[in-house]
Structure formats: structure tokens, C-alpha cells
């Protein structure tokens, strides 16, 4: 274990022997940090926070702070971070609240840029890219492979589906379905993330059927119930690899309690 002499680590904290702790870090008593994780200078890790393996936290990140929720009364809620995440300077991640399961989670292999705020009870999937100064309000769900453009703002309880993408300074007040690109203030749909899907190995048939589903939702003048029926028809006729992705889209639409961007 490499610990700078200026770091302050509570003796109750549990750190793997391979953790690196930089100058002026502060680590609280209920913190657990896994093998190979590195904390840059001035990083603070507090609360009931568990961090997995091979994460890198750059300078002045504040991880595991109390939720910014007036209902919070000091309950021992959690922040759980997985493996191989990169967290850049001045990010702030809060623990959860008892009103929503008591846990904030960040999964694996995420690239989280400077000044990002992840509020209480957010759930971040894997392989996401969250660009500079993105602000996530409480209870937000970001699914796998999402890209959030710099300075995007996400309203509380919003869900962003897998492989979706937002442009710079996008304002989200409704859910973004999987595979969809969103842009604007407030956000409007801007096609599917076709280039991203190609890079991730989606077949031409899968991308074609995702485009058809997008058109059913956004380009054919259908109501949401009619669009769901159209996607059901597409799914019945699609090749096997496309069926899975259409099912993902269909399930998301059923769960969109705040409505979707239109």
C-alpha cells in the first residue's frame, strides 16, 4: 500500500494492500476500497462507501458525501462503485436515501469527466461516458453504454436507455429510449446512435430494425400505444439478433413513467 504521509485515513477504513492514496486525501471510517484503486491528491471518500478494483480517482473528487436531500436525517445509506472506473477532477458522488433503497451505484468501466455530479439514489450502468459538468439529479438511472454530452442536465427520476446519447448542454426532463440521440433545451429526439452501435458490433439488420422502431415512435405520427404495437410487429418479423434489441426498446417504453422525449 502506498499512502502519502499527508493523507488522513480513519483506522476503521478497509483498504486493500495495493491501494494508492495521494497527498491530502481524507478517508472515513466506513469506507472499503479494493485492489489497485488509486486516489489522486485531495480526494475525499466518506460515508458508507464501497469501491471496487482498479479505479482511478483524480484530484479533489468528493466521493460518498451525504445526499443533498432535506429528508436525509443521517441514516447509514450507501454508495457502491464497481471496477475500472475513471473519475476525473472535482466530481461529487452522493450516497442514497432511505426513501429509495438507500443506495447509489456506479457499475464498471465508466469514464466520468471533471465536475460531474451524481446525486443520491442514482444508478449508473457500465461502459458509460459522462462528459464534463454533467449534473444528475436524484433517482436518475443511466443504462449501459450511454454517452452524456458535456454540461447536460438530467431531472430527477429520469431514465436514459442503453446506447442512448445526448448532445452538449442537453436538458432532460423526460426519459430517453435506448439507442436514441437527444439534443436541445429541452431535449428532442435526433435519430439513433447508429455510429455508436456500429462501433459496438451491432449487425446491419439490428441497426435497420432499430431505425424502424425509431420511426414508429417519432416519424409516423403514431401515439405511443400505436408505436408499441408497431414495434411488436417489427419484433415478430425481425432476425434473431434484432429481436433482442427491439425487446429492449419495447420494455423501456412500458416502464417510462415520466414519458419519453418527443
Describe this structure in words.
- With 262 residues, this protein is α/β, with parallel strands linked by helices.
- It folds into two domains: 2-142, UDP N-Acetylglucosamine Acyltransferase, domain 1; 196-254, Udp N-acetylglucosamine O-acyltransferase, Domain 2 (Up-down Bundle).
- The chain has helices at residues 194-199, 204-218, 224-237, 240-254, and strands at residues 2-3, 8-9, 14-15, 20-21, 26-27, 32-33, 38-39, 44-45, 48-51, 56-57, 62-65, 78-81, 86-87, 92-94, 103-106, 111-112, 117-118, 123-124, 129-130, 135-136, 141-142, 147-148, 153-154, 159-160, 165-166, 171-172, 180-183, 188-192.
- An eleven-stranded mixed sheet has the order 1-4-7-10-13-16-19-22-25-27-28. Strands 2-5-8-11-14-17-20-23-26 form a nine-stranded parallel sheet, with no helix packed on it.
- A hairpin with a 4-residue loop joins strand 27 and strand 28.
- Helix 2 (204-218) runs antiparallel to helix 3.
Brief summary:
The protein is α/β, with parallel strands linked by helices. The protein contains four helices and 28 strands.
Give the topology.
Blueprint: E1 2-3, E2 8-9, E3 14-15, E4 20-21, E5 26-27, E6 32-33, E7 38-39, E8 44-45, E9 48-51, E10 56-57, E11 62-65, E12 78-81, E13 86-87, E14 92-94, E15 103-106, E16 111-112, E17 117-118, E18 123-124, E19 129-130, E20 135-136, E21 141-142, E22 147-148, E23 153-154, E24 159-160, E25 165-166, E26 171-172, E27 180-183, E28 188-192, H1 194-199, H2 204-218, H3 224-237, H4 240-254
Amino acid at each position: 500500500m502506498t499512502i502519502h504521509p499527508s493523507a488522513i485515513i480513519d483506522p476503521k477504513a478497509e483498504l486493500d494492500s495495493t491501494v494508492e492514496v495521494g497527498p491530502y486525501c481524507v478517508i472515513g471510517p466506513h469506507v472499503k476500497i479494493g485492489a489497485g484503486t488509486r486516489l489522486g491528491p485531495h480526494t475525499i471518500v466518506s460515508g458508507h462507501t464501497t469501491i471496487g478494483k482498479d479505479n482511478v480517482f483524480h484530484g479533489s473528487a468528493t466521493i460518498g458525501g451525504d445526499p443533498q436531500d432535506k429528508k436525509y436525517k443521517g441514516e447509514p445509506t450507501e454508495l457502491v462503485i464497481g471496477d475500472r472506473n475513471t473519475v476525473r477532477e472535482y466530481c461529487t458522488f452522493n450516497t442514497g436515501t432511505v426513501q429509495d433503497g438507500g443506495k447509489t451505484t456506479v457499475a464498471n468501466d465508466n469514464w466520468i469527466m471533471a465536475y460531474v455530479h451524481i446525486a443520491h439514489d442514482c444508478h449508473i450502468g457500465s461502459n458509460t461516458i459522462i462528459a464534463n459538468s454533467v449534473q444528475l439529479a436524484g433517482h436518475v438511472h443511466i443504462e449501459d453504454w450511454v454517452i452524456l454530452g458535456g454540461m447536460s442536465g438530467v431531472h430527477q427520476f429520469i431514465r436514459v436507455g442503453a446506447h442512448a446519447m445526448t448532445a452538449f448542454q442537453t436538458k432532460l426532463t423526460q426519459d430517453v429510449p435506448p439507442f436514441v440521440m437527444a439534443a436541445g433545451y429541452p431535449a428532442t429526439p435526433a435519430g439513433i446512435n447508429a455510429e455508436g452501435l456500429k462501433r459496438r458490433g451491432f449487425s446491419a439488420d439490428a441497426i435497420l430494425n432499430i431505425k424502424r422502431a425509431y420511426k414508429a415512435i417519432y416519424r409516423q405520427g403514431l401515439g405511443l400505444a400505436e408505436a408499441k404495437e408497431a414495434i411488436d410487429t417489427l419484433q415478430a418479423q425481425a432476425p434473431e439478433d434484432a429481436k433482442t434489441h427491439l425487446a429492449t426498446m419495447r420494455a423501456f417504453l412500458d416502464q417510462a413513467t415520466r414519458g419519453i422525449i418527443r
